[in-house]
Amino acid sequence: MAAILLHLLPASLYAILGVHFWHSRWLAPTRAPRQGLLPWERLVMLAALVAHGFALHGVFFSSDGIHFGFSLALSLMLWLAMLFYWIESLYARLEGLQTLAMPAAAICALLPAFFPDQHLLTNANSPLFRAHFVVAMLAYSLFTLAALHATLMAVAEKRLHGARLTRAFASLPPLLTMETLLFRLIGIAFVLLTLTLGSGILFSEALFGKAFRLDHKTVFAIVSWCIFASLLVGRHAWGWRGKKALYWTLSGFVALMLAYVGSRFVAEVLLSRPA
Known about the structure:
Elements: H1 2-26, H2 39-60, E1 61-62, E2 65-68, H3 70-88, H4 97-114, E3 119-120, H5 127-161, H6 167-170, H7 175-202, H8 204-208, H9 216-238, H10 242-270
Antiparallel strand pairs: 1-2, 2-3
Helix pairs in contact: 1-2, 1-4, 2-3, 3-4, 3-5, 3-10, 5-7, 5-10, 7-9, 9-10
């Protein structure tokens, strides 16, 4: 019961913020005053991040080592993505993104309470493994933020063409500016994903204690890498943008989710295997 309450607190804060942003930003008319995050909104979001981080720490670390699984992976990814968003909101105003991010964060913050089975990470004390793990989680979280950003752009473009703007969309930067930010996120995340794949392939025995083998996780990760590489090449060589860029972004993100989260979900939930 205590474990559920530990995850319920950040999920509740995210949900409250999501409802608030839905009414105050997403549905507000364009004539409403434009503004970034209010001080109390920023404070509540920070409280949610702190509570979420505390809950993750309690599940992640234990006396017998470091535990991990699909629910913890999703929760950690959204926590990092929300942390990046909170920091970014200090310098840029992106109305609408918080309305999409809060429900996802609320659901993922609760997942470890309902799917508590985690497996013990091998070689967790190795500095090389920890560096690999941190870089991988940063890549996943930035791609998560990029996917949310791409979704917001798709909705904004549809509303712009339909002349159905609310305050959240009227306050957004021009689509070209948002597109530039999207590719900046993808570019940074792609470098991190490249480091993750490269280290996993070249130093498999040092990282995981076994020789490299081409399993389904690696295949999906390579597919995702190829999709994002093609997107970045297409952007610089042929000026890909708009719907084509959004479709490629979301396709690459889905493949990346299937690489680890999808495989762990099948193993832990559907097949009830610990590892």
